[in-house]
Amino acid sequence: MPEFRKDIILDEWVIIASERAKRPEMFKEEKIKIENPPGMVCPFDKGNENMTPPEILRLDINGNVIENSNPDWQIRVVPNKFPALKPLAAPGSKLYGIYSIMDGFGLHEVIINSSQHISHLSNLSKSQIRLIVDVYARRLREIKKDPRIESLIIMLNQGKDAGASLEHTHSQIFALPINSPVLEKELRGTLRYYRRHKRCAVCEILVFEAKENKRVVFENSHFVIIHPFASRNPFETWIIPKKHYPNFENIEEEEIQSFAECLKILVDFFYNELSNPSFNYYIHTGPLHTKTDHHYHWHFELIPKLSIKAGFEIATGIDICITTPEDTAKFMKEKLKI
User: Fold this and answer.
1) Kindly report the CA angle at 84 between 79 and 32, in degrees rounded to 5?
2) How far apart are CA 168 and CA 154, in angstroms?
3) What Cα–Cα distance (Å) separates residue 88 from each residue in 93, 95, 152, 173, 215?
4) 222: closest CA among 197, 201, 199, 248?
5) CA angle (80 as vertex; 79, 83 as ends), nearest 5
6) Measured between alpha carbons, how far apart are the two ends of the chain, in Å?
7) What is the pLDDT of residue 93?
8) Model pTM?
């Protein structure tokens, strides 16, 4: 029968509708491949560097910083050509009648994940994905030097249904002068749990999930892949570091390798076993200049576009997940043979 399940971090209810559940294999369906229009030149392809704003960083295949004129690059970081945030805007709020307003200060960067015209991370090797993760950490550490930036989100939109505007695989970084509403909810939730139990909520999740072993998909030396107990979406997948620390920028070299292994496993699974659905992924990391050492635990979330939110979800804020995380985790483990 259906269940209400409470997310102990966000303190919110979701419904696991087992009587409406689809079997995990039913999410596999034919997808129409998104092609670039005939004659379109991709600005992210090698040789078209002049089509992007002046770059921030250029790395070769070994992760070495190289000159902007060097054509043998693997990853480039550039400002977004159509940014949602602008570094020259003035931070700080002001009143507009009864309202508070603030200029759109911040950073909006694009990480071009490959010099080749590749549309999916699954087509990259684990070492290439490791380099992408390394760039995430490098940019976060550099951006953190600006005291005006308080929080940062690293994300990737895969596929048209996930909001990708260009086929060429790329990630984005948004740096904000405030904490986002999602981060604020997570901070409040984890702090509330810590004050009640004197323990980190995510660390508690790791202990319980390891004991039950119903929603754990994979683990290596440093990370665990799970389908969360209170999943809001079919095949919602998290990567959680075993070590408790709040900020992704503190990731160590050996952890980068382990994280890349997990990320490669995930993108290969969705590409090969679920016919390449669109998805979004995010790295949720703690505030840059506020201490949250005891209660916040950074993590990664991947949300595939396998269902559509309807009126009930929108009206109530209670998500209905049409399959169980236990079934999807089992299905993923069987397909991965791990």
Assistant:
1) 85
2) 17
3) 15, 20, 17, 17, 45
4) 248
5) 115
6) 30
7) 73
8) 0.89
| H helix or E strand, kind and range, residue 202 | helix 201-212
Task: Mean pLDDT check: name the lowest of 92-101, 104-113, 198-207.
Answer: 92-101
* Six token digits for residue 218: 């994979």
Task: Convert the pLDDT of each residue in 279-326 to its tens digit.
Answer: 999 999 999 999 999 999 999 999 999 988 889 888 988 899 999 999
**Which residue has tokens 């930036």?**
149
3-class DSSP assignment, residue 28: coil
Radius of gyration of the chain (CA): 20
Token pair for residue 336? 């991965």
**Which active-site residues does the annotation give?**
170
Q: How far apart are CA 5 and CA 11, in angstroms?
A: 10
216, with CB counted inside 10 A (0-12, 13-18, 19+), is: middle
CA distance 313 to 52: 39
CA 162 to chain CA mean position, Å: 12
Question: Count of alpha carbons within 13 Å of 108, Cβ hemisphere only?
Answer: 12
Contact 285, 186 (CB under 8 A): no
What lies within 8 Å, CB to CB, of 33 at 6+ separation is: none
Q: Which two tokens stand for residue 276?
A: 């390449």
Do 85 and 92 meet the contact criterion of CB atoms below 8 Å apart? no
Query: How many Å apart are CA 245 and CA 248, to the nearest integer?
Result: 8
C-alpha 94 chain-centroid distance: 32
d(CA 2, CA 131): 43
Q: Decide if pLDDT at 33 tops 70.
A: no
Judge contact between 297 and 201, C-beta under 8 A: yes
What is the rounded distance in angstroms from the CA atom of residue 144 to the CA atom of residue 150? 8
What the chain holds in terms of domains, given with CATH numbers, is 3-88+98-336 (3.30.428.10)
Cα 164 from Cα 62, distance rounded (Å): 27
Q: Token pair for residue 79? A: 């400002």
pLDDT digit string (tens) for 129-140? 999 999 999 999
DSSP tag of 173: E
